[in-house]
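Worked example 3. Consider a protein that binds H2B.
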Amino acid sequence: MDKLNEAEINQALQDMPGWNRSGDSITRTFTLPGFPDAIVFAAAVGNLAQRADHHPDILIQYKKVTLTLSTHSAGGLTAKDFALAKEVNGIAR
Ligand code: H2B
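Given these inputs, the predicted complex is written out as structure tokens:
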């Protein structure tokens, strides 16, 4: 899959509330009510990722879950990252 260019990345970010650009990645931190909720949320993200065969870095810090998305095989951001970010937004409150 082709890397997106700068204009495409900026355009895609506009439709992606909560997500920020960080170099070759996009990130979003979700704050859940408590640690068990954070674990359940991370597992739900894991299920989406497995189904999409596209996997984010997942950092759990107590009740915060930070997701970092990038397409390793492309060495940058692709449509797959934004597709998964959109799915994650769909399961987040
Ligand atoms: N996830 C991410 N974030 N980037 C990839 O390039 C990637 C992946 N490649 N998940 C997938 C798995 C690849 O290894 C399999 C074989 O499709």
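Take a moment to read the result before moving on. The first strand starts at residue 20 and ends at 22. The chain has three helices and four strands.
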